[in-house]
Amino acid sequence: MKIILLGPPGAGKGTQADILCKKFGIPHISTGNILRDAIKSGTDLGVKAKKLMDQGILVSDEVIVGVVIERIKQKDCESGFLFDGYPRTIPQAKALEDNHVEINVVIEIDVPDEVIIERMSGRRVHLASGRTYHIEFNPPKIEGKDDETGEELIQRDDDHPETVRKRLDIYHKQTEPLIEYYKKYSESEADTKPVFIKIQGDQTIERINENMASMISK
Ligand code: AMP
Predict the structure, then answer these.
(1) Fewest beta carbons less than 10 Å away: which of 11, 88, 132, 186?
(2) Ligand 1 pocket: which of 59, 156, 174 to mutate (most atoms <8 Å of CB)?
(3) Tell me, what's the pLDDT at 54?
(4) Consecutive 10-residue runs of the chain (218 residues): their mean pLDDT?
(5) How far away, in angstroms, is 35 Cα from ligand 1 center?
(6) Is the peptide bond before 161 cis (omega within 30 degrees of 0)?
């Protein structure tokens, strides 16, 4: 099972990804988390990515494609994986085809911009694991602490409202065209065509997940 989750930043991709990955027993590949890990370990990749990420700008296609293609060669990806935050541009999607990576399902989570801005300001993250929470909609058991480790939760620099607006702008310009791209591909005659699923993201986490799981199993 190879899945792509598409949708604006703050659409709930990370939360849904965790649930789907557990259900299907596949790894959750979040390029955002890979880049944040690289920043923490101070690698060349992290140094290159940090400035761009803090401003909400995309890392170059060349760099991110290299990271993803290496990642999916690892053993845990043999029976599939779920991409969250990749691809983000048409060249990134084309790179999958060039590398013969056949995607089975593309899921778009659709959420209006105003809802995103409200959601992102309440988002908190556990840096070490990438687990995300929302102070109102998905709160941790203990305020400000990660459920599994009890460690501190933080607000990401790129979740501040001005940066969120910029990220949405970039999403509409650079990533939204992928929705048309995958819709067309799913309607084509190609043997490798994926199934395209659109989900309204303006519902509870459980409801979104139920809809997704039932559409995928169909
Ligand atoms: P995310 O956690 O997916 O919202 O990603 C956070 C930031 O990481 C983005 O705003 C980009 O700067 C960078 N990033 C993550 N995934 C990609 C990607 N596929 N292509 C380019 N930049 C990315």
Answers:
(1) 186
(2) 59
(3) 84
(4) 94 90 95 94 93 90 96 96 97 97 96 89 90 91 97 89 90 97 96 94 88 84
(5) 8
(6) no
| Cβ of 4 less than 6 Å from ligand 1 | no
> How far is the centre of ligand 1, averaged over its atoms, from the C-alpha of 189 (Å)?
31
Domain membership of residue 108 (yes or no) is yes
Q: Which residues are catalytic?
A: 13, 88, 123, 156, 167
Residue 3's closest CA among 134, 12, 13? Answer: 13
Q: Are 181 and 93 in contact (CB under 8 A)?
A: yes
Q: Which long-range contacts (CB under 8 A, 24 or more apart) does 56-60 make?
A: 56/158, 56/163, 56/164, 56/166, 56/167, 56/170, 57/166, 57/170, 58/88, 58/89, 58/170, 58/174, 59/35
User: Is residue 41 one of the residues assigned to a domain?
Assistant: no
- Percent helix, percent strand, percent coil in the chain, to nearest 5: 50, 15, 35
CATH assignment at residue 182: 3.40.50.300
CA distance 60 to 172: 17
pTM of the predicted model over 0.70: yes
State the residue range of the domain holding 180: 2-26+79-217
